[in-house]
Amino acid sequence: MKDSNRNVPKATLQRYPIYLKALRQLKNKGVERILSEELAEYVQIKSTTIRRDFSFLGNLGKQGYGYSVDTLIDVFNDKLGTNFDEKIILIGAGNLGRALMNYNRWQYVVGEIVCAFDIDENKLKEDYPVPVYLLDDLEEKMPKGCRIALLTASSIDQETVDRLARAGITGIVDFTHEHIIAPKGVTIKQVDVVSAIQELVFATNNLED
Known about the structure:
By secondary structure, the protein is α/β, with parallel strands linked by helices. 41% of the residues lie in helices and 17% in strands. The two termini are 41 Å apart.
């Protein structure tokens, strides 16, 4: 977030990405202008709250005329400090990798998976929503400007992570639970679904006491 966000309430800042996601979805459907009441129904947030949240961004709309979807997207992109058009690569085209490729709806929030890499040549012959390449061809096939990688293959090792860093990757989401060390300049976010479920079960059991 930019320094200009310091005067915006935390709760408002937390809603901005929700608005942006909705606006990008609406634009994708061809919507050019929207009233706060219409957006309220779409995101399930009161229209009075939306208008108050938008007031921190300046005079963006007119009563009865609504807001320009394109203008709002531009404003939120600037406010949140990114254009949310990241090219994401996937390492591992197994069951989890395929599920993420089939989902691939991050284009409304952060970007989209544009291709995947795997060590199994047979994966190249299968039908996937995005191109799948051999991991050996990473440096040749990786999209220009790509900074984010998702790791889903249990065969991921430190050498692969180091290769990703040398190829320009600066952010990694790790689903593998393998022991890897973040190279200098690279941030690794580990996603542990099992731990999340365990925490939820624990919390649920406590509620029943």
